[in-house]
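sry for the spam today, last one i promise. struct tokens for design, 142 residues
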């Protein structure tokens, strides 16, 4: 099972404050543990929403909305993508992670990633083949 662990933004992350050397070292050690265990698929921090945009879909119309976005508690500051056997295992890993922000309360959200079999009959053999081909092409670039 794959899980996306989303690090919720804070005022400091939205202000563009960078983590301390100590926190970077702690995160590096934790990520190293994840890699050694064969669990980590990706891990990245994100720039503040002031540097981002949203694309709103309404029928055939597309509207681009520039950041920053008001609700900090709804924003993501970074993420891990991990592959583990269960939600319980994902939770146990994240209990061991350093607090993503120095000296302040913060949250991470753990959400399971859909797998091909989750989509049922609507995900036809042709669509599955296309998905496999795209994943193979992506793998060639990373």
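last one done:
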């Amino acid at each position: 099972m794959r899980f996306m662990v989303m690090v919720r933004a804070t005022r400091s992350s939205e202000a563009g404050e960078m983590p301390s050397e100590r926190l970077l070292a702690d995160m590096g050690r934790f990520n190293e543990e994840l890699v050694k265990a064969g669990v980590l698929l990706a891990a990245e921090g994100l720039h503040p929403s002031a540097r981002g945009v949203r694309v709103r879909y309404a029928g055939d119309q597309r509207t681009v909305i520039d950041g920053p976005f008001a609700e900090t508690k709804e924003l993501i500051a970074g993420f891990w993508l991990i592959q583990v056997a269960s939600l319980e295992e994902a939770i146990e890993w994240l209990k061991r992670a350093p607090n993503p922000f120095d000296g302040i309360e913060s949250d991470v959200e753990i959400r399971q990633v859909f797998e091909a079999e989750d989509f049922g009959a609507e995900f036809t053999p042709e669509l599955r083949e296309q998905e496999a081909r795209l994943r193979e092409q992506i793998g060639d670039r990373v």
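Residues 125-141 form the longest helix (17 residues). ok im logging off now
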